[in-house]
Amino acid sequence: MRDALNGDMMQNIIIADNHMESVESGTKTIAVRVGYCSIEPGPLEIRSASGFWPASRVHVVSVQRKAISSLSADELNQSGVSTSDAMVKLFLPAFPCLSTESDVTVIGWKAAA
């Protein structure tokens, strides 16, 4: 999908359906991804995994690399977990070598203007 303002390809990510309502209400403002991520500051379209929810447009304000063990309580809570061990457990089926010392990418956004 192209960005209507400048014609560039729109960045996008897919998140679990159970997080889409929080994105739309503005209470979810981060996503954590394992590995390196090509998302950069600027416009971002967030789509639901099932496609049931309409896409939301936000503006990426930060992209950081950090160890799972250094994620803040807010970053963990917005990801649906309360501890770094729970975060690892969430990702283990897809990433069996993951540990609390593994690096993840934290994408932060605000509502699109």
If you had to describe this structure to a student in words, what would you say it looks like?
It comes from Rhizobium grahamii. This is ASCH domain-containing protein. The two termini are 19 Å apart. With 113 residues, this protein is α+β, with helices and mostly antiparallel strands. A five-stranded mixed sheet has the order 1-3-4-5-2. It has a single domain, classed as Archaeosine Trna-guanine Transglycosylase, Chain: A, domain 4 (Roll).
CATH class: Mainly Beta
Overall average pLDDT: 91
Fourth-level CATH superfamily:
Hypothetical protein
Strands, total number = 5
Keywords:
alpha+beta; Archaeosine Trna-guanine Transglycosylase, Chain: A, domain 4; five-stranded mixed β-sheet; 3 helices; ASCH domain-containing protein
Write the layout of secondary structure elements.
Blueprint: E1 11-15, H1 20-25, E2 30-34, E3 42-48, E4 56-67, H2 73-78, H3 84-91, E5 103-111
Parallel strand pairs: 1-3
Antiparallel strand pairs: 2-5, 3-4, 4-5
Compact overview of the structure:
By secondary structure, the chain is of the alpha+beta class.
